[in-house]
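Hi R.,

Here's the chain you asked about this morning:
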Amino acid sequence: MYNYRHYCAFNNPITNLFFKSNGSVVIDLKKDKGGPDIVKLPLQLTLNEIFYGSIKSVELKRKPSTLCDSISNKLQVLKINIPRGFPTGGTLKSEVSKPDIGYGNVKTVYIFTTEDLPHKVFKRDNMNLIMVQKVLLKEVLLGIRIVINTLDHKVLRVNITEVITQDYVKLIYNEGMPDMNDPSQRGDIIIRFEIIYPLYLPVTDDTFCELFIDNKINT
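And here is the predicted structure, written out as tokens:
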């Protein structure tokens, strides 16, 4: 029967312990220790977390690396610093050291690739925030007032007085996402429009017909 310590040392793939024929234990320090473990994971963020910057807590379950390690999975909580305006698809690294037999500390490097979680109003395009406003045909011709709640909790009331077409966009300057390198600089809010056409239109609708009457013509 193996001694428990000898069994763990002999079966530990990270350390370089081995038994000599006389039963003594030798540590081979010349063997390459190898690099850290690399773990790549997605990191989903809300637009609010990116807008203000935040510290994201990520829970990870680490499997035991050796038979001498804990049999049950260990729960790790990493604190990831999210800078203001951090771009989608960017990477953040976090290194974790763990004690191991023979080498002191063995590192695991976690590489997180950021993803934007869906927002109920906005979609990010670099520093700009894009929103789609549905409008009725009557609003296309007569105009509309749009109320926007921004990420920094402002209420904007935007009057659209131009005739709205499929290609028409409205820009609200300096109300988008902050620049990661210079948070004082911000992108824009871009409003695009989706026109809702009626399935049918009664010709007796006097209100609608009046829109097409040329008031300059005397009848």
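One quick note: The first strand starts at residue 17 and ends at 19.

Cheers,
M.
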